[in-house]
Amino acid sequence: MRCSYQLPLVGILLFLLIPSQLCKICEVSKEDLHLNLLLNTMINSKYTSETQPANVLLSLRLVGIHDQTQTQRLVQQVKNNVERKDSNLSSGQLAVIILALGACHSPDEIFTYDKHLLSHLENKFQEELENMKAHDGNPLTNFYQLGLDVLALCLFNGSYSATEVAEFFNHYKKNYYFGGQFSVDTGAMAVLALTCVNRSLTNEQIKADKNLKKIDELISFLVEKILSEKKENGLIGNTFSTGVAMQALFVSSNYYNESEWDCQQTLDMILQEISQGVFNNPTAAAQILPPLMGRTYLDVEDCPYVSGLDTFNISNHVPESERSNSSSLIMVYYSVVINETYSINVTVPNGSVFLDVMKAAQKKNETTFGFTMEQSSWGPYITSVQGLYANNNKRTFWELLSDGKALSQGVGSYVVHEEENLEIRWSTY
Ligand code: B12
Ligand SMILES: *[C@@H]1O[C@H](CO)[C@@H](O)[C@H](O)[C@H]1NC(C)=O
Ligand SMILES: *[C@@H]1O[C@H](CO)[C@@H](O)[C@H](O)[C@H]1NC(C)=O
Ligand SMILES: *[C@@H]1O[C@H](CO)[C@@H](O)[C@H](O)[C@H]1NC(C)=O
Ligand SMILES: *[C@@H]1O[C@H](CO)[C@@H](O)[C@H](O)[C@H]1NC(C)=O
Ligand SMILES: *[C@@H]1O[C@H](CO)[C@@H](O)[C@H](O)[C@H]1NC(C)=O
Ligand SMILES: *[C@@H]1O[C@H](CO)[C@@H](O)[C@H](O)[C@H]1NC(C)=O
Ligand SMILES: *[C@@H]1O[C@H](CO)[C@@H](O)[C@H](O)[C@H]1NC(C)=O
Ligand SMILES: *[C@@H]1O[C@H](CO)[C@@H](O)[C@H](O)[C@H]1NC(C)=O
Ligand SMILES: *[C@@H]1O[C@H](CO)[C@@H](O)[C@H](O)[C@H]1NC(C)=O
Ligand SMILES: *[C@@H]1O[C@H](CO)[C@@H](O)[C@H](O)[C@H]1NC(C)=O
Predict the structure, then answer these.
(1) What are the record's GO terms for cellular component (predicted)?
(2) Stated pTM of the model
(3) Nearest ligand, CA of residue 250?
(4) Which residue intervals of the chain bear CATH 1.50.10.20?
(5) Are the beta carbons of 361 and 385 closer than 8 angstroms?
(6) How do residues 108-117 score in pLDDT, each as one tens digit?
(7) pLDDT digits (tens, 9 = 90+) for 297-310
(8) d(Cα 422, Cα 81) in Å, to the nearest integer?
(9) Is there an atom of ligand 5 within 6 Å of 257 CB?
């Protein structure tokens, strides 16, 4: 059971009556210095993709940190992007934008785009479902984005069919898995979306709704899966899925026993990772901040005012990734694996990232090592190598590995080591 500070007075009185051990408070105080690090990354990073400012805006608003200058800057960037990219936005990108513009906006601020953007999202969500019917259950994007879609439609009163949601989220369970491995991020986003749908169905008092039962069972299944991905050290899935997993567990506490999750341990582990600079990407930082402060994406209409940005000690330096500045060179092995393996040895400055290795190889042989990429909220994403493109309808992608093990970071962040065996492999998920 989660106690939240935003409860009305009655809630606070109840809280005082409940024996304290029943109430798992798992959040950091706003004086915690880790927050400075996250905020610095969120605010001072140079954004390289459309969805980064939207993720940052959503995060700041949810946790109740307000700063007029920053908010205006972010809102403007988000709106510019919508206008520029409009029809090219994926469903989930549009959903994040709607969440960001709509969450906790002040009463004097008109949420101008609401109707237009929502109907746009309704269409995009339908296109995802159509694609699933036509392509063996594969959405245009992925189930994480379908979760975001339903969440935004549900929270802002867009129209969607609860029957379709119950049906599709249940029937095509393969979408919760990548390469046989349960995707915690995906399952947790679905729990948030389904919980919203559950609440609105329950509010509308369609108690006998058969969808409720299906949704209830599905949440239960997903929560169990998420908890089964809990690691010894407290992380759930990996470092980057833990935030959204925490959110899912906050809102679904009547689906598991208190003894099944030590929230404090998870929190401590995350704080340790923050100190080590692991959350140095604005999207990563934006995703972890709300759960650290006990907030979830379902709280968009229930916004506290915590403080202004000026109470935090944020430098105005662009956070630098800790790249070694030495002029020493290192040699790494690099292979492109399709049906055949194409190998090369390349020499790069110490401190280089995977992408630098790919560029060096490409320079040596464009035909064999040529590649394309797209900017995304997590940095550069590899879309093709040797002209062979990843395809969501076929569930194909370019997988990154080191010494045969899949990496948990992308080409723009992963720092390579001397004599490391790097590989980019044509795979299915
Ligand atoms: C779906 C998904 C995938 C799909 C993407 C294709 C598809 N069908 O959509 C698949 C399974 C192919 C995939 C691959 C990879 N992924 Co992935 N993926 C996700 C997931 C669950 C959702 C992404 C999404 O749609 N976001 C919402 C939309 C609105 O934002 P977006 O920026 O427009 O989304 C795009 C990018 O996120 C991009 N993308 C997906 N994964 C990754 C990873 C990196 C490093 C980058 C730069 C981009 C990227 O695909 C999205 C659709 O176009 C996220 C979880 C999360 N918390 O975001 C993990 C996540 C982003 N992936 C991750 C990783 C590590 C990878 C891989 C590097 C794994 C590997 N060893 O090969 C590869 C990417 C390699 C490459 N080619 O560059 C990590 C990134 C962590 C980090 N610090 O960088 C995450 C956070 C999962 C995790 N918890 O570890 N992924
Ligand atoms: C949409 O994307 C396509 C291909 O990626 C590009 O050619 C086109 O210019 C884009 N349109 C807009 C409005 O950005
Ligand atoms: C959605 O509808 C509910 C009930 O009709 C209402 O309480 C809520 O304020 C609405 N939310 C938005 C964002 O319009
Ligand atoms: C979902 O709905 C069921 C039945 O109305 C209810 O028992 C359950 O508590 C709800 N779950 C959440 C997370 O709201
Ligand atoms: C919680 O534990 C009790 C007894 O230990 C058990 O009966 C119950 O099924 C458990 N609930 C869940 C959701 O696991
Ligand atoms: C703010 O942080 C910097 C280092 O990041 C430190 O040197 C400085 O003392 C801090 N100031 C306050 C008021 O805490
Ligand atoms: C590369 O840099 C790291 C520290 O950044 C150092 O530990 C390592 O010894 C360096 N390797 C070489 C070969 O210079
Ligand atoms: C890093 O290298 C740049 C240029 O090569 C130099 O200007 C800078 O002073 C170096 N920084 C450190 C900390 O060595
Ligand atoms: C890999 O080899 C198989 C069997 O020879 C073939 O069917 C397939 O098209 C090849 N894949 C690629 C990407 O070349
Ligand atoms: C790369 O270097 C290793 C050891 O230095 C050598 O065994 C291997 O044959 C080289 N590979 C290529 C493709 O040059
Ligand atoms: C690139 O590699 C291919 C074999 O993978 C080879 O046939 C070709 O000659 C190479 N080109 C150059 C410029 O080295």
Answers:
(1) extracellular space
(2) 0.91
(3) 4
(4) 9-311
(5) no
(6) 665 555 678 9
(7) 999 988 888 888 88
(8) 35
(9) yes
